[in-house]
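# nightly structure sweep
# worker-07 picked up a monomer target from the shared queue
# config: single-sequence mode, recycle default, output format = structure tokens
# input follows
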Amino acid sequence: MENPYDAMRNTEPISEDDAVMKKESASSGPEDRRENSRRSFLTESVRLVAGVAAAELLPGRVAAQQNTANAATLERLTNAKERPILLKDGIVFSMDRQVGDFQKADVLIQGKKILAVGPNLSAPAPAVVVNAMGMIVMPGFVDTHHHQFETPLRSILSDGLLGTAGDAVSSYQKTIIGTFTPTYLPEDARLGELVASLSQINAGVTTTVDTSQVSLTPEHTDACIAGLKESGRRVLFAYSAGPGGKSQYPQDIVRLRKQYFSSDDQLLTLALGDATNADQWKLARSVGAPIVSHIVDMSTLEPMAKAGLMGPDNEYIHCTRGNNETLWKAIADTDGKVSIAPAIEMQMRHGMPPLQVALDHGIRPSLSVDVECNMTADMFSIMRAAYTLQRALVNQRALTGEQNLPPLVTCRDVIEFATIAGATVAHLDSKIGTLTPGKEADIIMLATERINTFPLNNVPGTVVTLMDTSNVENVFVAGKVVKWQGKLVGVDLHRLRLQIEKSRDGLLARTSQSPNLFGTCCAAG
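# output follows
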């Protein structure tokens, strides 16, 4: 019986001498076999000595040759343009049940599109061939809710809460939105967007819904868009209000549509970030922009439901408090979209992440990271948070004797939340979310031959329960290589770090806050 792991294993070719000896051994008698065995031992001894000598003399040369070959492949990839790219012999995890999954197969890309997925694809003569052996080739992750402008304030509010009256620790609403955000310069906003985007590319998150509430002025909004564009990542920019009276929100969405988003056939697309305002929802729809709303308390949706304004272009974030059967049914009946940020919702006291509630209503939720001032933005951590939480809650119900329980989510379920469900919530499922011929090539290649993952026994389980950002080896966005062999392409990280540290220092100075590496820089409130 064929071993299913053989297709995923690197194998050494059999030499001519080995083949002859095997043939002779099979057809000879005991004396001949002893002689063959002696010859084999001597041959192997000679090979061993030669190998040791070569290892002592040539490691630098071999490494240099490998580096040269890798650099040449990267150069061909970055200049590929319409030249085909063949990802060869990977473990293909397509997330498209019609396409299927493969222990060993290829993905053919041309331009920004996926042309074909399957074993032993024929590559056109000028194709750039990328060896994908030992890597999981799958669609990039999609983060459906991220306040990217806050990146200069990473982890500054690690122990903070959302903002309930009487909290004994710093609150997000007072500290981040009330204190820091009004002091942002356009350059701070641009850098926040750029660093967040590049960081998530590095982590295999090829798409986000950016909910940056820093549009203090039109210049701030333009700076956000500039940072997103510079990153080369796919983003649904949810134009959102900022504190202060100079933002020209929401009317400025008309200018943005004409100036930056006149075509939907680009990496950046447009939405309106809003809570629940009927006039603003109508404005968004008048320019063809979907609506992204933070709904912590579901009762805020009641006026929109009564007015019949809820629709398939709505994304509802959190939905953690005031569990309302009528409103959940309204979301499901209108094909509304749901984004859950499980790590933040548990950490910042939003309420219990409504993973099971959404599933009970037939809604496949997407996953999001929310705010980096409190929590990591890598999707491996977020998938694990969702996976363990749903199972913990259902398992506890089982332990108390409850019957007719909902099914436990699987690793594949959670990856669907982070890929195709995310693409659907971002209104991009016709373009991304699966490795489907005709879709755009947002692809990540995850290394399995690492100490944290080998031996590989289960692909979805490895992605969800074992991997982290160090396994993200190569990343393509719309067919363009943006991370290669573990490094971002064309990014000066040292320069970027100095820039964002300067941005952070300016924000601290303008808010009269003192840095404190082992406590909190911010007054409680």
